[in-house]
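Field log, afternoon session.

UNIT: design team B
ACTIVITY: writing a sequence onto a fixed backbone
BACKBONE:
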């Protein structure tokens, strides 16, 4: 999890701890495909695609937070909220190739772990199981979800607490996830239930 091979055979694979530049360019490839890399291209895509702006903010937060809590990373959370309507908390570990085509309404928790080539649709929330300090199970260091590689999360899905979502899984729109999701599972409903298996070679669910 959290790794992705570069186009060069001699290059080391990317992961969540790769340099800021490489993670931004890995996200760029998800939005525009493999091709020319460079900051001018990133700027051009940002001018028309708010998801790319979100990626730059997230990667900056990751870089700033590697040595511990960062005031600037927290300030970027406010920038994202004002610019995009997305609540991007600093602290998650997010692998290469992260894509949010419609970042408005997305809420990402502090301790979230996301693998490689994951897609979040608009309005996705990954939050704590006990968000209110008055709740019996509340602790300030509670854990958030662990999301595998090549996962797609549909619009306005909600992922609650320290659940694990297996590689290649598909979580449908408006689905509430409170328990672990198997690898390649297709999940829909409130609460989420498995309704099929995702064939990642064709991206078509089977067994529906």
């Amino acid at each position: 999890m959290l790794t992705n091979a570069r186009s060069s055979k001699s290059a080391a694979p990317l992961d969540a701890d790769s340099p800021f530049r490489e993670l931004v360019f890995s996200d760029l490839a998800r939005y525009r495909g493999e091709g020319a890399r460079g900051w001018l291209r990133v700027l051009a895509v940002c001018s028309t695609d708010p998801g790319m702006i979100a990626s730059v903010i997230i990667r900056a937060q990751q870089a700033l937070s590697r040595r511990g809590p960062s005031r600037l990373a927290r300030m970027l959370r406010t920038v994202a909220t004002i610019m995009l309507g997305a609540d991007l908390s600093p602290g998650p570990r997010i692998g290469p190739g992260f894509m949010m085509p419609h970042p408005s309404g997305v809420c990402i928790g502090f301790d979230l772990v996301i693998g490689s080539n994951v897609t979040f649709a608009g309005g996705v929330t990954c939050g704590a199981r006990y968000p209110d300090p008055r709740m019996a199970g509340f602790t300030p260091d509670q854990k958030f979800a662990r999301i595998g590689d090549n996962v797609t999360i549909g619009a306005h899905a909600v992922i609650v607490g320290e659940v694990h979502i297996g590689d290649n899984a598909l979580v449908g729109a408006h689905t509430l996830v409170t328990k672990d999701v198997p690898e390649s599972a297709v999940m829909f409903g409130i609460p989420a239930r498995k309704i099929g298996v995702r064939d990642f070679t064709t991206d078509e669910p089977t067994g529906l």
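LOG NOTE: Residues 46 and 53 are 5 Å apart (CA to CA).
NEXT ACTIVITY: expression trials, pending approval
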